[in-house]
Amino acid sequence: MPRAEREQQMLDAAVQTFGQRGYRAASMDEIAELAGVSKPLVYLYLNSKEDLFTACIRREAAALVAAVRGAVEPEGAAGPGMPADRQLWAGLTAFFAHTAEHPDGWAVLHQQARTHGEPFAAEVAEMRAELAAFVTGLIGEAARAAHQDPAFGDRDVSGLAQALVGAAESLAQWANETPGVSAHEAAATLMNFAWTGLAGLMDGHRWSPTR
């Protein structure tokens, strides 16, 4: 078997083991057995448990970002020239579909990597920053198209993107733990919660505690 294919086989086994057992409880023996290889071969290819876990994080993060980008960018489902809300809808649907189809990978990213300190948390933070930057572009595009509220600036756009990504992460966890919730339903929930309010904000309707 080619090295690259064998390595992916090991990563598949590692993601499943880390996602279901947790980083601390997972053993290299379990991973090697699930992959159908010897433990020395896992060490030969991926050096250590820490390096193996890092490789899992990077692979799963790249796959998630690629799924979202692929749905939104011209060659994806949204298509060229689509309004920002349709692009966001396509991206969110892809996000929730990917996390539902790869629950072990999502557990690695959302639960395991974040709870075991550096450098694992930094790897996930990098993925989150990329997603937030992507969403910032979509919201910024919508804001420029609306241009109803002159007070609506770059800081508003950046903050809203961070809030939206955080909400998507929490909602994905809930959707994966709640039987029967589809990617379409999860995306619609977040669009109703976030985009409807965002549309009013761009029209100049701002909530104030003094009102």
From TrEMBL:
Matching SUPFAM superfamilies: Homeodomain-like, Tetracyclin repressor-like, C-terminal domain
Domain of life: Bacteria
Molecular function per GO: DNA-binding transcription factor activity; transcription cis-regulatory region binding
Entry keywords, A to Z: DNA-binding, Transcription, Transcription regulation
DNA-binding region per UniProt: 27-46
HTH tetR-type domain residues: 4-64
UniProt record, GO biological process: negative regulation of DNA-templated transcription
InterPro entries with a match to the protein in the record: DesT_TetR_C, Homeodomain-like_sf, HTH-type_TetR-like_transc_reg, HTH_TetR, Tet_transcr_reg_TetR-rel_C_sf
A Pfam family this chain is assigned to: TetR_N
Protein name per Swiss-Prot or TrEMBL: TetR/AcrR family transcriptional regulator
